[in-house]
Amino acid sequence: MHKPAPENPYKQMRKNKLTHLLFLFSLLSVLAFFTFYPFRIDLTEDGRYSLSPYTIQLIKNVNRPIRFTMYLNGDLNPAFHRLRKATIDIVDDVSKYANHSVSTTYINPAQAGSEEERLQAFGDLAARGLIPTEVYMRDKDGKSIRHVIFPWIEIEVDGQKVAVPLLKNLRNKSGEENINISIENLEFELADALRRLTVKTVRKIAFLEGHGELSEAETYEITKSLSRYYQIDRGALNEDASVLNDYPLVIVAGPQTAFSEEDKYILDQYIMYGGSLLWLVDGVKYNKQQLADKGFTPAIEADLNLQDLFFRYGIKINPVIIQDLQCINIPVNIAPQGEQAQFDWMPWHYAPLLLSSDLHPVSKNTAEILSEFVSGISMVGQPLTTKTEVLLASSRQSKIATAPAIVSLHAAEDTDPDTFNASHLPVAVMVSGNFQSNFNNRIPPSGIRNERPFKPNSDFTRQLFIAGSSIIRNETTGTASDSTCLPLGYDRATGFTHGNETFLVNAVHYLTHQEEWIQLREKSIKIRLLNQQLSLQKKTSLQIIHIALPVVCLFLFAFVFNHYRKKKYAHKSVQD
């Protein structure tokens, strides 16, 4: 039988060489393509590697180069490395969708030529509002070493800069949970900064006056925060129904005197035409100066002539004061009468730290809310056309004092947990939907100017009811300035600033119907932690599975592969 001529070995070598070169060229081409055109498929259940359509469109609308400056660098523990990597991933996504150039600069403030230069760099960043965080890590010898890091990133567009905090530090969360929450909020924080740098149309919101509401100084901090996004105006109604027409939101913060029927009618019709209201109304009145001077004060029901209006909207603010074991501390004079004052920090149960709901984008991942002399809210009537959602509530160990009552500093001495047997009393409730007018089948009050046609049912809108004006009030010496006003939610005892500002700013965004933006806060990343008890029980078997089994599989594959090669070439030799 005629046997085919053997193939030229040099020709076979050239053919193999050409195949290898083609493979190498293809591999390099693919690598180069994905270097300049990054491509990523998000197969995660929680969509952690995907930007929302709203954020993508916001990035595309930026018509200037974007510059990022990252300060989270240097010696980081694994948790902060994860936060840093998640931030870099989002910056990469921004560069993918941006229509102009995107550059990133990485700065480690701890790297300096001398200790003096390092402290100077720290001071310069802190003066710009970039507050450092202390982290304790162990070195190779097991010693605990303090590191100062700056979990911040600056975004610059057209010469304007916004500093973005990367770390959410909630006191009631573990370190791992805080890192997870921080990663969840990255897209919202970066989108918020880009929006502030590029927005051109500014909406208007109004603080209502004319009923003894909180002064401009007492709302200075929240006004300053909201002014980044909105034009803030203040004024009274003065029986002019058209005065609110240009405002999508009106804030009623701490009224002290009763509302007239004319004012109620104007606010009611404002709601019917789609306006939103943020109510911060106290259920009781008390004399704060008398409490400070004498150690006690009577607390009576606050009659603001709003009960019928609220009841129509499905809400009742109860004339009670909530006391809570989860509260702040205040200095109390513990010296006997007639002796030199001696102050000690005591729990002030009338100033509860309110819990925020993780089921709503306004309150999700928000720190505890500092409050004082807040009341409870009841949902009444349950209108079928509206939906109620509790955003803030007391802790598991609460109780109420019904007005009239005596408020005394000696209440700090009552720490018996058996008396604090109420749980999760609602303090802030969001009501959304179509409201019915409180003036249906009633003769409207006379004397109202520029009145629109009466509307019995509202368009879709929202109202947020908060039973306590302290949530929006900052401490002040009487004038509105940075030097005379403390941060909103500031606790003198601990120096910690609570989540009041974040909660209220989110609430205003939500009430002005910016759903696509505020829904970025709903992003959730599940923490998949190890079961420590199960890990200890099955330690040996888990070590075998994760360490020994891969090695066994590798040796098994090598044995099978070598056996196959020997068999193949042995068969070819027999044929030759």
Secondary structure tally, helices: 14
Biggest sheet statistics = 10 strands, mixed
Unreliable stretches = none
Radius of gyration: 32 Å
Based on CA inertia axes, which overall geometry fits? Answer: globular
What level of helicity do the residues show?
25-40%
Estimate the strand proportion.
Answer: 15-25%
Total count of strands? 23
Distance between the termini: 14 Å
Average pLDDT score: 86
Q: Which structural category fits the helices and strands? A: alpha+beta
How does this structure look, described?
The protein is of the alpha+beta class and 576 residues long. Helix content is 32%, strand content 23%. It has 14 helices and 23 strands. It has helices spanning 9-36, 53-60, 78-97, 115-127, 175-184, 186-198, 220-226, 261-272, 288-294, 307-312, 500-511, 515-518, 532-537, 539-575; strands spanning 66-70, 102-106, 133-138, 144-149, 152-157, 160-165, 203-208, 230-235, 249-253, 276-280, 284-286, 296-301, 315-317, 320-324, 327-333, 343-356, 369-370, 377-379, 386-393, 398-402, 405-408, 426-433, 461-466. Strands 7, 8, 9, 10, 15, 16, 17, 19, 22 and 23 form a 10-stranded mixed sheet that branches. Strands 2-1-5-6 form a 4-stranded mixed sheet, covered by helices on one side. A 3-stranded antiparallel sheet has the order 11-12-21. β5 (152-157) and β6 (160-165) form a beta hairpin. α3 (78-97) runs parallel beside α5.
